[in-house]
Design a protein that fits this description.
With 216 residues, the protein is α/β, with parallel strands linked by helices. It has nine helices and six strands; from the N terminus they run E-H-H-E-H-E-H-H-H-E-E-E-H-H-H. The strands form two sheets. A three-stranded parallel sheet has the order 1-2-3. Strands 4-5-6 form a three-stranded antiparallel sheet. The model has no long low-confidence stretch (mean pLDDT 91).
Length: 216
């Protein structure tokens, strides 16, 4: 039963050719699009998550977001700069920090950013463009699986905790993030930096008002 508190989130990493190449299987884009349309027809909220690689250009980012926003009419869209975490099988197509900022600055230019229904705080989008910088807040979006609570985030695996309390109390959070751990050098993932942006938003009346306006 559709509910305003539930949404299907579907990974769509580009238009047909780019998405199918990203997942290494032909035809997946068409299956995902039909699933989105079917869920929307049934009254469900649908959001998407799109990973951006170093093979992307500002134009390919614009094309997929225009398609998701205007053609598929998904409710909200997330963006994830590709990050070469240790277990990733492909280490060649990930963005560095400088590349990420330049790519999003160009893709967001001309007022396009305001036209898309992006499921991010304005400050996180500023972060992607390099207008602001933040430390990582990995504990705010923890990852849980059959193995337990993954330390420190779903991209890095430095062991597991049996409870969230144990995760919080036994993890040296100050040792992670860009400038602290070499593995985090090129990470700008929303799992670590969107929470920081939200905390910064909530601590500022000006940014809180800006965030509210961005959703109306």
């Amino acid at each position: 039963t559709p509910s305003p508190y539930f949404a299907f989130t579907v990974h769509i990493d580009g238009l047909r050719e780019r998405h199918d190449a990203a997942v290494c299987k032909d035809g997946v884009f068409d299956v995902a699009v039909e699933a989105v349309r079917d869920a929307k027809r049934r009254g469900f909220r649908v959001t998407t998550n799109t990973t951006i690689f170093n093979t992307d250009t500002p134009q390919t980012v614009i094309e997929v977001l225009d398609y998701l926003n205007n053609d598929l009419k998904v409710d909200e869209m997330m963006l994830a700069p590709a990050y070469a975490y240790e277990k990733a099988p492909d280490q060649e197509h990930f963005l560095g920090v400088t590349e990420t900022r330049e790519l999003f600055r160009k893709a967001f230019s001309g007022g396009r950013r305001a036209r898309w229904r992006l499921n991010h705080s304005p400050l996180f989008l500023d972060f992607l463009e390099g207008k602001v910088d933040f430390p990582c807040t990995a504990w705010a979006i923890p990852s849980y699986s059959l193995l337990g609570w993954q330390r420190p985030c779903y991209l890095l695996s430095d062991g597991y905790a049996e409870s969230y309390q144990e995760l919080l109390e036994t993890t040296d959070w100050d040792s992670y993030g860009r400038g602290r751990d070499s593995r985090c050098a090129n990470c700008m993932a929303h799992c670590g930096y969107e929470p920081t942006a939200v905390l910064a938003t909530m601590s500022s009346l000006k940014e809180s008002i800006r965030a509210v306006k961005s959703t109306t």
